[in-house]
Protein 1
Amino acid sequence: MTERQFVFPKRAEHFCVPFFLSRSPCARSFVGWTLEGVQFKVEGEQLEQPVFKRVVLKVSGESLSGQNGYGIDAVTISSIAQQVKDVVALGVQVAIVCGGGNIWRGIAGSENGIDRATADYMGMLATVMNSLALQDALEQIEVPTRVQTSIAMQQIAEPYIRRKAIRHLEKGRVVIFAAGTGNPFFSTDTTAALRAAEIEAEVILMAKNKVDGVYSADPFKDSTAEKFEQLTYLDVLNKNLGVMDSTASSLCMDNNIPLIVFNITEQGNIKRVVLGERIGTIVKGSVD
């Protein structure tokens, strides 16, 4: 908390608070009279300055399942919601894309004999379930939230409308994009890249629940796996690192949208990334 002195002339028999003080989001309280005039104190002034104004948070389905590996873990989803709330409190506009792998994977379903398009639509419905669960967790801690779906289901969510999504973000609401792109054969990684381009987000935050960045190999299988601090999208494509699918990587590269891969299980990591702390791996057009 800081104090800032606002000094006004001594002749204040008919003193009134200036408009910019009364309308500011910071709470200002009257302290008392000084020799110079009137002293005010600024309470709750934000000292931490985020480096991003609008972000897309990509949360994998596995991140919502916690240690269970399947379904939705209440403790885990509450932890993620609290991290999102901390970021919103900084004034950052947050949009979220949820995966559905904790409930259903379209590729796995197609490998078991289900038509690929049908399996992908089932996966889209799984992302809607995750999105509604995350919306409930956020609203329980008083974070205003809207779910927008690419497949119309007006009884439970809004249809995705780009301008409406941007307006929600400008009003401080968290927007959760569900049901993927609404088309089969596209992953939720592609959804995150597409929505980030559409709403002009500055970065995609890819939250992982097992690894803390991008490695040259699976760190759980190869003890010599090297963690990268920076990569280019061409590196991701050429080395087949599996950060995101090729369609999503190309879309991010073409629209110059950086990607930060980090571990979401450590409390406060989303806030650290938004404040500019170098954690995880950053993927962008070129390496510094």
Protein 2
Amino acid sequence: MRRFLQILQSGLFICFNFFLLLTIFEVTGKGSSMSSPGYGAPVYDNKEEYDPSLQRLNSISKLADYCDSLYEETVYANPTTRFESTYPEIVSDVVRNRFFHGYSYYGGGNNYVGDLFASFTKKGLSAIVIADDILKFPFAACSQQSIVMMDVLEQKGFKTRKVGFAGPKGGHFCFETYFEGKWHFYDPDMEPDNRLLLAYQRPSVAFIASRPAFMLQAYRQYPAEKMTSLFSHYFYGKVNAPAAPKAYWFQVITKFLSYTLWSFFLVLFILVRRRYLRTSTVKHVRHSRIHFPQLQPGSPGAVNLEY
């Protein structure tokens, strides 16, 4: 038992130091400095709308503040500007220029626990769905760009709902927001023709899907077969519901563990260490012998009772 406890406490001490070093790396390093092994970071293709200077907007609060400032400038230039129809367009333009297309994943430098567990379960669980973490990267996929935009609009009091596409030629993720009595469709990733959509007062996905010629004109940079397949198989999510609740809670929990896992090994090490020391003490007492001196008659220490 004592030998087992000695080996166990050594293993726990090694684990404690290992996970502590990983946590220090996450805290002190750049959040996106280490991607998932085997994943190549996307490269800008110079075809999408993209402004590298907007990389400074690396949190939802900064992105919202920037959109607020643009809206204030718009109101200053035109006092009759309507918030409900103008603000979503501002956010859409900013998000379209903030990212270029490509999935961002958690890795060893920003959530090593999530990356590890996702590699054994489902890879998609490590595709980032937490808006603030998505904004740590210059690229984002359709779902991630929509999540960022939905987050900002919901903070401003807008209703939003997911619009998913699951056609035989592939899937897609967009959303709608509600204002002025109806739903309006946004697709920040595939970037349909904004001027055309605005000319029709930013219609809903149902309006676009029911007019194939209009849809193909709005998405003329993509193959007609692909867009027809997508818009013939769309569905809605719940209003103001998380876009990917399972992935969201998986990432929240694993991020917490990435910062605290070392402490669990430290506590276990302390408990095993105490048990080991108690076992060592009991064993020492059990096998020790206390020897009392035996006095012999006539020795200097003996007491003579005869007078």
Protein 3
Amino acid sequence: MRDAVSQAGRKILAVGVLVLAAWVLFKIAIGFVTAVAWIAVVILAVIAIIWAVRVL
């Protein structure tokens, strides 16, 4: 009985660790995608400004 409780506790802890690790990796991935998107927006804005200045 004691071993079964110990095994169940270890499995619950392992699931908790996996969920936490997945959440952290998800947040990192979202942050990376957001950073890349902002860099693309800035580059496009600079290109738009250069184009607008040349047209005027």
